[in-house]
Design brief:
Number of strands of chain A: 6
Number of domains of chain B: 2
Oligomer: heterodimer
Largest interface: A-B, 19 and 22 residues
Order of helices and strands of chain B: EEEHHEHEHEHEHEHEEHEEHHEEHEEHEH
Number of helices of chain B: 13
Strand order of the largest sheet of chain A: 1-2-6-5-4-3
Strand content of chain B: 15-25%
Structural class of chain B: alpha/beta
Largest sheet of chain B: 7 strands, mixed
Helix content of chain B: 25-40%
Number of strands of chain B: 17
Largest sheet of chain A: 6 strands, antiparallel
Shape of chain A: globular
Number of helices of chain A: 2
CATH topology of the largest domain in chain B: Aspartate Aminotransferase, domain 2
Distance between the termini of chain A: 12 Å
Radius of gyration of chain A: 12 Å
Chain lengths: 82, 400
């Protein structure tokens, strides 16, 4: 990961930005592990993993909704990316 | 800027946040550092003299650009935020007393709310907020109701950074002056996009940022009427802003007298290169003509409105009449967060802003968690809007 940022807005979403040179690898690993609920032309994927829903963009970003516990998010990302 | 993002031609629609820079502006900054770099107002050597001349020439250009009476009414600051803070601390802290009132509106950028809230905690003056109508326009009846002889300042954006609504600053200035109040206008979203005449508008303070008008970041302007600047206390202390600092052996203190405006408000070495480059940005805009810039943006906005209405799940916030607004369009797509929209567009090389745009109270009025925002400038085209609408249609069609 390059950065994890809280978005601006009342939603309290978190955007995870993958390292540019590793983004394709990160996207591939996540798609292999998470369950795909919906997708648009292989650009956005709506996914679930261990009960957490999130959206993954093939440009190398992911949005996690209503995240209150950053530590849990880090754990989730670690298992997704390993 | 000619480059591709994610394999697509870049379309830059985040101009309300910052603008791209013409070659001439970049060259002005580079030329200064390569050939003229010296500290201004400090030395008799050639480089210092050249730097001073270039910096003060930029100040003259900016004064002419907004039709200030004199270049001494132009204070270089870091940006509009610092300019408002300067007025809040140098004027507000000393002139707004307990039980005095000032008016803000609920459409203000946080930079025109937070400094006043901070200073009001110290000076204990009252802040009243003027309501905004559900279409994002200012509630003038509420303004008329709230202004009175106890109002000492009205601080208002000329153009909303969220909805693009243009406020009738001329009318508000007259109303303020009739009630014995001063008016500060946040011109961050107006000065880059339309002709500005501070004498015609009769505003007491006007603030704007260089980077939103083709200039570099870290440079902006506070315009203030000369008689106000003369009576205001300095904002920061340091070199350049003083006329004399003399130590008294008798009382063990330094007696200090202030320099004349504008230098009284420019402590320390300023952003010389930034000021010079902003002067070049102003020259560039004047060569095109600010009326032409405005007409181009209004044409883009009208076209975007027409095309965006083809999308069934899209809602545009703010006034429906494009004649009362500038080239800023806030919108949402049903079932998608603003960040989803912005990230999807980013995938196609289209740069949009998402979130609160530093104007949370206005989002509360629109009953929005956040919004996506497209904002145009002089280099945007109708073809870019067509591409933008195509991409949004794709998102709307496939996301169920």
């Amino acid at each position: 990961m390059a950065r994890v940022e809280g978005t601006c807005g009342a939603e309290k979403d978190v955007i995870v930005i993958f390292k540019y040179e590793k983004k394709e690898e990160a996207v591939a690993r996540i798609l292999k592990k998470a369950h795909v609920k919906n997708s648009i032309a292989s650009i956005i994927y709506e996914l679930t993993y261990n009960g957490t829903s999130f959206r993954l963009y093939t440009s190398g970003k992911a949005i996690f909704r209503g995240i209150k516990n950053r530590e849990k998010l880090n754990e989730l990302l670690t298992t997704l990316l390993i | 800027m000619k480059r591709e993002i994610n394999g697509h031609k870049l379309i830059y629609f985040d101009n309300a946040a910052t603008t791209q820079k013409p070659r001439q502006v970049i060259a002005a900054e580079q030329t200064f550092y390569e050939s003229h770099n010296g500290n201004i107002h400090r030395a008799v050597h050639t480089l210092s003299q050249e730097a001073t001349e270039m910096y003060e020439d930029a100040r003259e250009k900016i004064a002419h650009f907004i039709n200030a009476q004199d270049s001494s009414e132009i204070i270089f600051v870091r940006g509009a935020t610092e300019a408002i803070n300067l007025v809040a601390y140098s004027w507000g802290l000393h002139n707004l007393k307990q039980d005095d009132e000032m008016l803000l509106s609920l459409m203000e950028h946080h930079s025109n709310i937070v400094p006043w809230e901070i200073v009001s905690k110290i000076s204990r003056f009252k802040i009243k907020y003027v309501q905004v109508n559900s279409d994002g326009t200012l509630d003038y009846a509420d303004l008329e109701k709230k202004i009175n002889s106890g109002t000492k300042l009205v601080s208002l954006s000329h153009v909303s950074n969220v909805s693009g609504v243009i406020n009738d600053v001329n009318y508000v200035a007259k109303l303020a002056h009739d009630n014995g109040a001063l008016i500060l206008v946040d011109g961050a979203q107006s000065v880059p996009h339309m002709p500005t005449d501070v004498q015609k508008l009769d505003v007491d303070f006007l603030v704007f940022s260089g980077h939103k008008m083709l200039g570099p970041t870290g440079i902006g302007v506070l315009y203030a009427k000369r008689h106000l600047l003369e009576r205001m206390e300095p904002f920061q202390g340091g070199g350049e802003m003083i006329k004399d600092v003399s130590f008294s052996q008798k009382n063990g203190h330094c007696a200090i007298s202030w320099n004349a405006p504008p230098w009284k408000f420019e402590a320390g070495t300023p952003n010389v290169a930034g000021g010079i480059a902003l002067g070049e940005a102003v020259r560039y805009l004047q060569n095109i003509g600010m009326t032409e810039v405005l007409e181009h943006e209004l044409a883009l906005t009208a076209y975007a409105f027409k095309r965006l209405h083809e999308l069934k799940k899209l809602t545009i916030y703010g006034p429906k009449d494009v004649k009362v607004k500038c080239g800023i369009i806030p919108f949402s797509l049903d079932g998608l967060s603003s960040h989803d929209v912005a990230l999807f567009c980013d995938n196609f090389g289209i740069m949009l802003r998402s979130g609160f745009h530093c104007a949370q109270p206005l989002h509360q009025i629109f009953n929005l968690q956040s919004s996506a925002r497209a904002s145009f400038y002089l280099y945007n085209t109708l073809e870019e809007i067509d591409r933008f609408v195509e991409v949004l249609k794709e998102l709307e069609q496939f996301w169920r």
